[in-house]
């Protein structure tokens, strides 16, 4: 694949998985994060070895997502592939993506960057790419600065939104929505992908909600429940959305909201 300037900050990933439904789904999840560009998806260790080894056909790969038990002579062909290549010049990071927990210790002893268990989820793959980006200084900031506008679906058409128009992003029933002064629209990215694209402008206040920091207008605590209002205005004329704050995040969210403020005794 050719890499455009806009794609350059993304991680270049290779997927090695012998079951094509799992292979295609992992490719979809990785691309959906916005943090990774899948440059190859193969079903056998020999194909991966040819791509990752030195030679004219070698692709530049930052990270290889490898199933441990591939349909080959060796039941642990994925581990053997990693063991063979770890430490060689320009070897990628390895993430093992498997249905078996019992190989985790051996995988991390080999220096695995992460260990994904099937069935894969958007949230877990997003966490993985976030960890990987931390291993490549400069990728995260470059990617965040590249997101100037958001495109969302409105019926059969598209709407284009400036970043400052966003109030919050919500994940609900395998869908993602963006809440704005103009209405609520559908997105085709996971919350993890959106979070990595915006950088510090967004804050995760709940596993299903990201809020635009500059658009938070009110915080309310009612017993053990905390919620915040994100939008425009206060009182009866306000427009926006009430967002629940996870209990385990409530103290952190309150401290974050008060960080650069004056008016209350601390």
Q: Uncertain runs with pLDDT below 50, 5 residues or more?
A: 1-8, 141-147
Strand percentage:
25-35%
Classify the fold: give the CATH topology of the largest domain: Rossmann fold
Structure classification: alpha/beta
CATH class wording of the largest domain: Alpha Beta
Number of strands: 15
Query: What helical percentage do the residues reach?
Result: 25-40%
**Whole-angstrom Rg:** 21 Å
DSSP helical segment count: 8
The CATH architecture designation of the largest domain is 3-Layer(aba) Sandwich
Mean pLDDT: 82
Report the principal-axis shape. Answer: elongated
- The CATH homologous superfamily of the largest domain corresponds to Response regulator
Count of structural domains = 2
Query: How far apart, in Å, are the first and last alpha carbons?
Result: 54 Å
User: Could you give the order of strands across the largest sheet?
Assistant: 2-1-3-4-5
Elements, N to C (H/E):
EHEHEHEHEHHEEEEEHEEEEEH
- Largest β-sheet summary: 5 strands, parallel
Architecture overview:
- This protein is α/β, with parallel strands linked by helices and 266 residues long.
- It has two domains: 11-142, Rossmann fold (3-Layer(aba) Sandwich), CATH 3.40.50.2300; 148-258, LytTr DNA-binding domain (OB fold (Dihydrolipoamide Acetyltransferase, E2P)).
- Helix content is 27%, strand content 32%.
- It contains eight helices and 15 strands.
- The strands form four sheets. It has a five-stranded parallel sheet, sandwiched between helices.
- Helix 1 crosses helix 5 (122-133), helix 2 (45-52) packs parallel to helix 3 and helix 5 (122-133) packs parallel to helix 7 (191-198).
- The longest helix is centred in the N-terminal third of the chain and has 13 residues, at 20-32.
- It is elongated and about 70 Å long.
- Mean pLDDT is 82; it is low at 1-8 and 141-147.
């Amino acid at each position: 694949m050719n890499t455009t300037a806009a794609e350059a900050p993304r991680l270049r990933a290779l997927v090695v998985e012998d079951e094509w439904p799992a292979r295609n789904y992992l490719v979809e999840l990785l691309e959906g994060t916005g943090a990774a560009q899948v440059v190859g998806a193969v079903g056998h260790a020999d194909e991966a070895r040819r791509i990752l080894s030195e030679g004219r056909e070698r692709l530049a790969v930052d990270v290889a997502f490898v199933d441990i038990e591939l349909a080959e002579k060796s039941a642990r062909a994925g581990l053997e592939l990693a063991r063979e290549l770890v430490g060689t010049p320009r070897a990628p990071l390895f993430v093992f993506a498997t249905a078996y927990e019992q190989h985790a210790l051996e995988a991390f002893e080999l220096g695995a960057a992460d260990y994904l268990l099937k069935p894969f989820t958007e949230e877990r793959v997003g966490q993985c790419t976030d960890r990987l980006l931390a291993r490549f200084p400069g990728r995260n900031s470059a990617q965040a600065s590249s997101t100037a506008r958001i495109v969302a679906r409105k019926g059969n058409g598209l709407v284009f939104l400036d970043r400052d128009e966003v109030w919050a992003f919500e994940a609900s029933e395998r869908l993602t929505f963006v809440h704005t002064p103009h209405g609520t629209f559908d997105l085709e990215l996971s919350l993890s992908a959106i979070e990595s694209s915006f950088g510090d402008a967004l804050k995760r206040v709940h596993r299903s909600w990201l809020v635009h920091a500059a658009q938070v207008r009110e915080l309310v605590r009612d017993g053990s429940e905390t919620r915040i209002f994100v939008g425009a205005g206060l009182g009866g004329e306000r427009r926006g959305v009430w967002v629940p704050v996870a209990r385990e995040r409530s103290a952190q969210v309150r401290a974050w909201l008060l960080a650069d403020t004056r008016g209350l005794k601390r």
